Amino acid sequence: PPTSFSPPSCLQGHDMSRTTLDLWVGFFVAVGLGALLFLALKVGNMASSSSGDTYAIQAKFDNIGGLKVRGAVKSAGVVVGRVGEIRFDPEAYLAVVTINVDARYKFPRDTFATINTSGLLGEQYIGFEVGGDTEMLKAGDTIKKTQSAVVLEKLIGQFMFNKAAEDGGKK
Question: What pLDDT is recorded for position 119?
Answer without folding.
Answer: 75
